[in-house]
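Tokens in:
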């Protein structure tokens, strides 16, 4: 099994004495493969962060205003819009596992480029749709692109040296949060030219992302296999391998509520009817807090179980704080800002901790499918939790109190059940030479 030049040193087999991995002499500073120099880790991180910033700006610029467009410009019923947008979330969640396996099979650069092309097509279609059928097609294509993008981008970052990996992922998260804050105002400006212009600019951002992913592709990509197995067989083998890994499967099940805990607040706070301005301020503070904790997640701290547990407990505490929102204006804003800091910290800590957990446990050639399983389970729990909590949140104060208390309890149970798998170097080899 070949590994990329940018893979962490602990994962690369030593070269024969006097030879480099590219076939040159030992000590060569820039090894080559098929006449092409490898992409440096710094450039890899810069490209992935650039992609994340561009596509996040475009994504949030559209998604902040798409419901208004569908409801008021196209006259669609609120129930229809809700169902169609829920289909996108459901389809994307269901596809994370096969998308991760595909990333391992054809390479993250190719997968990322494909994801960006699909998302570009989806946003272009969204800007021209006039009926429910076209809208449904657009959101399904968008879901497929989203399911492919996340394992592709994170697989690329997982392949860089450990000294740059955590900082690179932190920059990746920060870029996404910048897009979440700056995207909606940018979309509002572009809406002056119509929703078609907004969707076209967003589609262009995703096309640019596809071009940048192409720059990362090398013949010896992160998952190039030594044999000529059909890609479908490689995909099936990846899925089978991750389900046989009992330790990681138990970890993924325990960590599955993380997405529910960090995203359900987007429904809870608007339903508290604190005003559009205060709600907007709340989510801006969440984004800033998510980005602000990233520097603290580097330096190996992201690999510690304490970080993930802290993130889950921050989310649970944030829901309890939301139960104490007072009626007076200034007290209400103060409590909401405290909850926003807790939820932003929870999102930032859990994202970094989960990325580090997958990176340290998954074999180099299986990162995508391991991340895919984790994302699939987290998405399934989030979807089921949303359906379960919806009636409670709509049942007035008693229901809301029950829902948020339940979320806090889920956070505590998940944190208590977590057992971070050890690194593979910490495992004892069996007589056949594999790890247990």
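Residues out:
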């Amino acid at each position: 099994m070949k590994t990329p030049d940018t893979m962490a040193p602990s994962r690369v087999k030593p070269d024969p004495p006097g030879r480099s991995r590219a076939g040159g002499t030992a000590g060569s500073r820039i090894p080559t493969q098929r006449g092409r120099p490898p992409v440096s880790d710094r450039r890899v991180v810069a490209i992935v962060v650039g992609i994340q910033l561009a596509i996040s700006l475009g994504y949030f610029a559209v998604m902040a205003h798409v419901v208004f467009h569908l409801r008021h410009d196209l006259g669609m019923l609120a129930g229809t819009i809700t169902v169609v947008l829920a289909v996108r979330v459901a389809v994307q969640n269901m596809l994370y596992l096969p998308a991760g396996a595909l990333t391992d099979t054809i390479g993250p650069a190719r997968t990322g480029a494909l994801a960006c092309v699909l998302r570009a097509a989806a946003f272009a279609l969204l800007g021209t749709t006039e009926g429910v059928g076209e809208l449904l097609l657009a959101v399904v294509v968008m879901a497929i692109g989203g399911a492919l993008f996340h394992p592709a981008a994170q697989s690329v970052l997982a392949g860089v040296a450990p000294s740059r990996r955590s900082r690179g992922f932190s920059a990746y998260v920060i870029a996404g949060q910048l897009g979440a804050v700056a995207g909606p105002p940018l979309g509002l400006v572009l809406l002056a030219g119509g929703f078609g212009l907004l969707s076209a600019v967003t589609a262009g951002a995703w096309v640019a992302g596809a071009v940048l992913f192409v720059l990362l592709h090398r013949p010896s990509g992160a998952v190039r296999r030594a044999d000529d197995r059909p890609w479908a067989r490689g995909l099936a083998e990846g899925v089978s391998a991750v389900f046989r890994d009992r330790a990681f499967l138990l970890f993924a099940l325990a960590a599955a509520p993380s997405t529910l805990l960090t995203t359900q607040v987007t429904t809870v706070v608007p339903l508290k009817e604190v005003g559009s301005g205060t709600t907007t301020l709340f989510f801006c503070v969440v984004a800033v807090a998510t980005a602000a904790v990233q520097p603290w997640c580097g330096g190996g701290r992201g690999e510690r179980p304490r970080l993930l547990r802290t993130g889950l407990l921050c989310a649970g505490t944030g829901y309890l704080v939301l139960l104490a929102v007072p009626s007076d204006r200034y007290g209400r804003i103060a409590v909401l800002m405290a909850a926003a800091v807790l939820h932003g910290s929870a999102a930032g800590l859990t994202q970094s901790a989960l990325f580090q957990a997958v990176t340290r446990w998954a074999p180099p050639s299986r990162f995508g499918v391991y991340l895919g399983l984790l994302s699939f389970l987290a998405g399934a729990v989030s979807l089921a939790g949303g359906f379960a909590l919806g009636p409670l949140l709509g049942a007035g104060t008693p229901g809301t109190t029950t829902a948020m208390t339940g979320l806090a309890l889920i956070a505590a149970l998940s944190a208590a059940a977590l057992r971070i798998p050890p690194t593979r170097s910490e495992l004892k080899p069996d007589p056949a030479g594999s790890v247990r």
